[in-house]
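Hey L., structure's done. Input below.
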Amino acid sequence: MTSDQSGHPWGRVADDGTVFVRTDDGERSVGQYPAGTPEEALKFYTDRFDALAFEVDLLDQRIKSGLMSPEEAAESVRTVRGQVTDANAVGDLASLLARLDSFGEVIGQQREARKVERAEKQAEAKVEKERIVAEAEKLAAGNDWRNGANKLRDLLDKWKALPRIDRASDDSLWRRFSTARTAYTKARKSHFADQHEKRESARVVKERLVKEAEALTDSTEWGPTSGEYRELMRQWKIAGPAPRDIDDELWKRFRAAQDNFFSARDAANAAQDAEFAANAEVKDKLLIEAEALVPVTDLEAAKKAFREIAERWDAAGKVPRDRMKELEGRIRKVEQAIRGVEDEQWRRSDPEKSARADDMVSKLQQAIEKVEADLEKARAAGNERKVRDLEANLESRRAFLETARRASDEFSG
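Output:
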């Protein structure tokens, strides 16, 4: 091998097989290749350069694609640069170094873009965390015990999925969020503890009511026992709910006791109504006689006939419950009609009222005579204004006199 085997622009092979690379600072030995030709030696080391160039190309693509973070890209550039700087390879190492240095601008732009993007995401995260905190505080102030716990868990999952913001704001918002969760949890536990206590109290009350209801179920005192059941039902309603499974079972027992009693009562009433049906037929016939007395033409005869009908009415006995209101209403209507005629006759014959009416007529007549005398004097004096006033006064008094005379005539008649 001779030193003139140096046709390659970036390297040469010495006679002893040493391979040199040309750089801006001069030649630098990159190794020996004594076993082959100068061409083979150069190709061995230029292949190394091509491998480095390929790695730089690949790094260029990865950086420009944005697949690497700026920090990862900068670290990769440093690593590859170290490999190129002292590489045992033949080629334009300076151009590779220049390309690696040029990546710094792209990485810087990406770093700024990432910084802006991170700031935007942090701003969005802050708004979202503030919303989460506000919703958590609203839940803590409310009483949605059924869904609130699930909602708070969902809010916590959303919080965890968000990036951290500046430490002071993040810590402050987290304290508020945590405080709201703690307050809600404490209030919820207190609520359900109170509910449990109330349900247990209701259970004790309802167990007592069930025993009382079952003790009455065979009673045949229909009226008083019906009232007692109404009172037990009132107490049942205000007792509130017991634990669900126990409440349902107690209600079945309570309702069964009631149903048994009222079924027996209804059966007894039905039998009684059948027995009283004949009494109702008797009273239907008596009503025909009674209603024939109206309108009243002879008061004394009507009163006598009604007394006889009333005696037979009472003797007829009870009627079915569904007919009581109708029958009693019709007989009362006849009784009221007779009593009304009697009251009217008494009103007309009342001595005290008759005397008051006669006295009113007498006083009005005296007053009219005085007004008539004053009217004649006013006319004689030619006092037209006084004449008009006295004429109006006289007309009003005469109208009152006519009304008083009619009332007096009614009493005297």
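The CA atoms of residues 18 and 32 lie 4 Å apart. The chain has a mean pLDDT of 87.

-- N.
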